[in-house]
Here is the input.
Amino acid sequence: MVELVMVMVLIGILGAVAGSRFFGSQVFEARAYADQSKALIRYAQKLAIAQNRNVYVRSTPDGFAVCLDAGAACATPGDRAQAPGGGNNGSAATRNFCVSGVYVANWACIGRPAAVVVAVTGTGQRAEMAAGGFFFFDAAGRPFNRADPAGGGTSTFARLTLDVRSGSQTSTLNVEAETGYVF
Here is the structure.
C-alpha cells in the first residue's frame, strides 16, 4: 500500500512538472513560427525559379509575405503569391498581418504571434527586417537586398540571420547570401 501511494505521488509530481510544459504554447510558438517562416521563404525562392521572375519577400517585424510586384507592396490580388496549400495558417496573428483591406486567406503570408520576438543578429540586413522591409529572389534563386536594382547581376545581400524567441525557446532562421539557402 505504501509503495502504491509513493508511486502515485511520484506520478503526480512528474505530471505537474511535465504537464505545465506541454500545456503552455509559448514554448512551441518560436519554433513553429521559425519553421513556417523558413518554409515561406523557401517557397518564395522556388517560385522565383519556377516562374523565371523576381519574387519579393515582405519581411517586417510583424511577419513575412510573398509578393510578385517590385517593392513588395502586394496592393492588388495579382501581386500576391498564392499559398502553396491554398491557404495560410489562419492564426490570429496571420489574420492581422495578411490584410489588404480585408484578410486574404489564400495569400502566402504569415504573421508573428504576440509572444514571439524576432531579432536580427549581426549588423547586416536591418533594413530588410524594418517596417516596409523586403528582399527578393531573382530567376536563378539568388537573394538581393531591397536597395539592389531588379535585373541587376550584383547582389549586396549579406547572410540574413534572425533569432526567433518565445519564452525560453530560441530558434534561428538563416538565408545564405550567395545561394539563398534557407535553414
In short: The longest strand covers residues 160-166. The CA atoms of residues 108 and 158 lie 24 Å apart. The chain is about 30% helix and 25% strand. The mean pLDDT is 86.
